[in-house]
Design brief:
The chain has six helices and 23 strands. It has about 400 residues and is α+β, with helices and mostly antiparallel strands. Helix 2 packs antiparallel against helix 3 and helix 4 crosses helix 5.
């Protein structure tokens, strides 16, 4: 019995040994399959404040000839002397020869610059520069909320990126003043894009549709780009939500002095004067933007107004921006709606940092908070049917409980 057991174990051992030899042969065959080796090495160069392109390239081991050739090749596409601190340059080198093959730089949130070494027709080498959209992965998200104190706080409670909250406010900036008009119980809903890269969330994308409900009822905005190429935000009737003028010329804390036709006493200067303007209290240095397209007809010292900018928008309207700490435009310059024209200050006859804002219609100063401004161009007629189809689908999603 013991002998039989020993013989059985011996046979089993031989069988297992044979299987092990076969397995080793198989592993040998697998190991013999060539593995493709990465042919390049990438290196990131951080752009610091005050860094020059040539200096960064030298620190990264790029020779002067390549650095100069890359700078020249990119010149007509993007000026590499405008590198922004905090961003990075990605350099790709050949693994075997160590030669630089490509330079990549993210210009902004939308585009990337690429400069590649290529063979020229003459047999030599040259650098070719191009800029292209960043290939984000885009998903669509729907969020809604109710106002208790402000749109900003309500958005944060819904785990919204603050940039998405600002984008929503920007969509309605012509019709809703999110400092003065917002009331507790107002509701909002938005459908928007979220952008990711390599599986990591990066930033919010475009607002595709939005609804804001207040005491006046629902306000809608739908993004649309038609076959004609015109794009923008439109309401459910196809009218542009953009108005000829913005509701406010600056981000402000509160209105320190409203529009009045009578006299008011200013104790700091022991004088009485009318105030046919709106004063927006804001920290010194807050950007001031033009409320509409137009031409700067005055930019300089305005006596009691301090540093002053006047913009003529058309034959009917002119706006004045006063007590600025700094003027950022010049007389005769054409400006577009939303452009920063100066900074809040307290120059001239002023008791503290604020923007004194005047609107003049046909030569008479009017209250800009009570003026009803027309919208800009509606959806082009040849795009209207396409817009209505897009709008109705988005509106169903917004109205869905």
């Amino acid at each position: 019995m013991a002998a039989a057991l020993i013989v059985g174990l011996s046979i089993l051992t031989l069988i297992n040994y044979g299987q092990l030899k076969e397995a080793r042969k198989e592993l040998g065959r697998v190991a013999a399959v060539p593995v493709e080796r990465c042919q390049s090495v990438k290196r990131l160069v951080q752009v610091e404040a005050g860094s020059a392109f040539g200096q960064l390239m030298k620190q990264a081991g790029v020779n002067d000839d390549d650095a100069s050739a890359i700078f020249a090749a990119a010149e007509d596409v993007y000026d590499l002397s405008l590198l922004r601190a905090g961003r990075a340059i990605e350099l790709t080198f050949g693994r075997d020869d160590g030669a630089l093959q490509r330079l990549s730089y993210q210009i902004d949130t939308e585009e990337v610059l690429t400069v590649d070494r290529e063979k020229s027709d003459s047999g030599g080498e040259r650098w070719i520069a191009s800029r292209a959209p960043i290939a984000y992965d885009v998903s669509v998200r729907t969020v809604e909320g109710e106002i208790e104190s402000s749109l900003y706080v309500a958005g944060l409670k819904q785990d919204l990126d603050e940039r998405a909250i600002i984008a929503l406010a920007d969509v309605f900036q012509w019709t809703i003043d999110f400092v003065l008009d917002v009331q507790k119980g107002d509701r909002f809903k938005m459908i928007f894009e979220e952008r990711s890269l390599n599986g990591q969330y990066v930033m919010p994308g475009a607002v595709l549709a939005a609804e804001y409900i207040n005491a006046e009822g629902p306000h809608y905005a739908f993004y649309f780009k038609g076959a004609s190429g015109e794009e923008g935000y439109y309401d459910d009737e196809g009218d542009s939500v953009q108005r000829v003028f913005l509701r406010t010329p600056a981000e402000f804390r509160y209105i320190s002095s409203g529009f009045t036709t009578g006299q008011r006493y200013i104790s700091a200067f022991n004088m009485s004067t009318g105030h046919r303007a709106v004063d927006y209290a804001a920290p010194s240095g807050t950007p001031v933007r033009t409320v509409g397209d137009g031409k700067v007809v005055f930019a300089g010292w305005g006596g009691a107004y301090g540093n002053k900018v006047s913009i003529r928008h058309n034959a009917t309207y002119t706006t004045n921006y006063c007590h600025l700490s700094k003027i950022l435009v010049r007389s005769g310059q054409q400006v577009s709606q939303g452009k920063t024209i100066g900074l809040v200050g307290s120059t001239g006859l002023s008791t503290g940092p604020h923007l004194h804002y005047e609107m003049v219609r046909n030569g008479a100063k009017i209250n800009p908070l009570r003026e009803v401004f027309p919208s800009t161009k509606p959806v082009p007629e040849n795009d209207r049917s396409q817009f209505l189809a897009v709008m109705e689908e988005m509106k169903k999603q917004l109205d869905k409980e």
